[in-house]
Amino acid sequence: MDNFQTNTNTQPRGKIALDIEHQNILQEDERRIDMRICTIYGVNVEEAGEIHTNYHFHRIFTLLKTRATRHGMTESIYVERLHDLNLHHYAMQVSQGRLNENAAVDILYKGLTSLEMDRNYLDDRYNSFYG
């Protein structure tokens, strides 16, 4: 019976714990989550900030990839174009409550598609001149 009590009193860790902390929060509450991460993982504030940023990095990466593939972009092109964008910067902005996660995805998606349009424009201009 003691084993049962020990197992039920442990807090969730990893992505599950962060998902729980992010349920029904306001954008302003993002800054407070770092302190909860300190408690959950037993780390200092700097490391908690990195964990929080990485959490949003992976969420934004996944949401952006889903959106891009839904609109016909292959995974290899997505990864290639992602190198031209600063996803980590936007993940940090989200983790600090300065930017909404969906807004970050919108900004980055626009960046992905504008890279495509710029490359298509250059290709078309080249083909028009030399074709």
Note the topology.
Blueprint: H1 2-9, H2 14-21, H3 30-41, H4 45-70, H5 75-82, H6 87-95, H7 101-130
Helix pairs in contact: 3-4, 4-6, 4-7
Structure summary, number of beta strands: 0
Percent of residues in beta strands?
Answer: under 5%
Give the helix tally.
7
Measured between the Cα atoms of the first and last residue, the distance is: 80 Å
- Low-pLDDT residue spans: 1-8, 121-131
How many distinct domains? Answer: 1
Report on the biggest sheet: none
Q: What string gives the helices and strands in order?
A: HHHHHHH
Q: Which class do the helix and strand fractions yield?
A: mainly alpha
Principal-axes geometry comes out as: elongated
Gyration radius from CA atoms, angstroms:
20 Å
Mean pLDDT: 79
**Level of helix content?**
over 70%
Brief overview, please?
This protein is mainly α. It has seven helices and no strands. It has helices spanning 2-9, 14-21, 30-41, 45-70, 75-82, 87-95, 101-130.
Note down, in words, how this protein is organized.
- The protein has one domain (2-130).
- The protein has 131 residues and is mostly helical.
- The longest helix has 30 residues, at 101-130.
- Helices cover 77% and strands 0% of the residues.
- Helix 3 (30-41) packs across helix 4, helix 4 packs across helix 6 and helix 4 packs across helix 7 (101-130).
- It has helices spanning 2-9, 14-21, 30-41, 45-70, 75-82, 87-95, 101-130.
